[in-house]
Structures are given as C-alpha cells and as structure tokens.
C-alpha cells in the first residue's frame, strides 16, 4: 500500500514567530496521522521550523531549489544548502513559479535533478490553466509537463518524487476540481508514467491533488482511487484546517 502524503505549501506566508506558533498548534493535532505529513515553509523560516518540528511526525519542506550546486545566482538557494538545514522535501515547478518567475519544463527538470542529486525528495507540480482546460488541452498539457519534468530521470529515482496535479484555475480560487475530474486527469498522468517507465512504476508513484483542497472536501478527494495525497495552500495556514485535511 502506498502511504498517502499531505503537504502544506505555506507560500510567502509565516515569519519566524508565526512559523513556531503554527507548528506548535498543528503538531499535536496531527500526531496520529496515518499519512505522511510535510510542511513547505519559506526559506527564512526553515531553521525555526526545523527546531519546532523536532519530535513531531511532520517533515520539513522548502518551496524551490536552484539547479546549480553553487555560484553567481543572486537570490537563489542550492539543494545542498537545503540539505544542510535538514530539509527533506522541496516543491518544484509550482504554477505560481511558472506564471510569475518564468519557470519552464526545462528548468523544472534541472531543479529536480539537483534536488535528487542532493538526496532531497521532490514534489513536482503540474497542471493546466483555465484557458488550456477550456481549449480541451488538459491531457496534452499535463503529459507534456510530466515528460518534461522527468526527462532523463531514472526509474530508481522515482521513489523520491511525488507528483502534484494542481489545475491552475483551482489554486487559491475556492474552485476545486470535482473528485471525478481530478481522478480522471490523474489517471492520464499515470498512463503517461506507464509509457515513460512501466506499469509497476506508474502504480507506485504518489500523485497528489492540489487546488482549494480543504477540511470540507479532503475526504471526498482522498476517497478517489487515483489520488494519493494533497498539496494544500490556504488551508495549511490554520492548524485546525490543516489537521482536518491530514486526518481526512
Ligand atoms: P490552495 O493552493 O490550496 O490555496 O488552492 C494550493 C497550492 O498552490 O499548492
């Protein structure tokens, strides 16, 4: 059985004091979680989060990583730097990075290789925009993004990768894909994985849904056979809401 994974994506929220408080509130509420629990915090809160997470079941994550080991890349953070701070997971290719910071399938692939090379686990985000969905391009877009992200990635490394299917139109909008829609698109993603690798690898891959997933809709989404977890934005910023998702 695959272990479901629920990850909070705090985005550009939570200073150090808020990080400590939120983790202290959240940790007891998710102490009996059956799934794997991760919080992906801002770079500046990583050290505080690491300390606050000690002795809890929650794992530490970051929200981006650069592809180069070091050098003249002002403002960027390397995989080894994250590793040094005991970060376990890193989100790569979030749609906000694709939309506002010029992230491409190629840069996602390069970041993924750097993360894996440093021994980090990655949550790789893919998903179509509203325009792409309305143009009937959802399958093509997620397949292209998936293949681009995984270019040159060996089968043995797949165990360190989680895919997050996040329809862009559902992120932060309160609009969720229906469980059936999410399940259908994730099935497409799994089919693409089968083509890229094989049936066993596709089956073993954990694929999350993300986009306005919250305390109310989590159990319905998690009941779908293809959905192996959630990437939670807004609802991960309140301990009780996040705990309700984790304890779906
Ligand atoms: P949301 O964000 O839950 O606020 O829609 C999800 C995400 O962007 O990962």
Task: Explain the overall architecture.
The chain has 248 residues and is an alpha/beta fold. The chain has a single domain (5-246), classed as Alpha-Beta Barrel (TIM Barrel). The protein is 41% helix and 16% strand. It has an 8-stranded parallel β-barrel, surrounded by 5 helices. The longest helix has 18 residues, at 179-196. The protein starts with a strand and ends with a helix. 44% of the residues are buried. The protein binds 2-phosphoglycolic acid. The site of 2-phosphoglycolic acid has 13 residues, from strand 8.
User: Helices and strands: which structural class?
Assistant: alpha/beta
Number of helices: 11
Extract low-pLDDT stretches.
none
> Taking strands numbered 1, 2, ... along the chain, how are they ordered across the largest sheet?
1-2-3-4-5-6-7-8
- At the fold tier of CATH, the topology name is TIM Barrel
- CATH homologous superfamily title: Aldolase class I
| Biggest sheet record | 8 strands, parallel, barrel
Strand content of the residues, in percent? 15-25%
H-E order: EHEHEHEHHEHHEHHEHEH
Describe what is shown at a glance:
By secondary structure, the chain is α/β, with parallel strands linked by helices.
């Amino acid at each position: 059985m695959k272990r479901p994974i629920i990850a909070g994506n705090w985005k550009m929220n939570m200073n150090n004091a808020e990080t400590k408080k939120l983790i202290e509130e959240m940790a007891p509420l998710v102490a009996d979680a059956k799934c794997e629990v991760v919080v992906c915090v801002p770079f500046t809160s990583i050290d505080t989060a690491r300390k606050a997470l000690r002795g809890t079941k929650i794992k530490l994550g970051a929200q981006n990583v650069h592809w180069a080991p070091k050098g003249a890349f002002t403002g960027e953070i390397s995989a080894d730097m994250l590793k040094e701070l005991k970060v376990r997971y890193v989100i790569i290719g979030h749609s906000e990075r694709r939309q506002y910071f010029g992230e491409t399938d190629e840069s996602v692939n390069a970041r993924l290789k750097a993360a894996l090379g440093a021994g980090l686990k990655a949550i790789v985000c893919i998903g179509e925009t509203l325009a792409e969905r309305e143009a009937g391009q959802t399958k093509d877009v997620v397949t292209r993004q998936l293949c681009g992200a995984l270019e040159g990635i060996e089968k043995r490394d797949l165990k360190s990768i989680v895919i997050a299917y996040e329809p862009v139109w559902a992120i932060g909008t309160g609009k969720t894909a229906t469980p059936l829609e999410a399940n259908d698109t994730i099935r497409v993603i799994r089919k693409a994985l089968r083509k890229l690798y094989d049936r066993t690898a596709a089956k073993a891959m954990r694929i999350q849904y993300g986009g306005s997933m919250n305390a109310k809709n989590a159990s319905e989404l998690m009941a779908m056979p293809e959905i192996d977890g959630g990437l939670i934005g807004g609802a991960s910023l309140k301990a009780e809401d996040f705990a309700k998702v984790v304890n779906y």
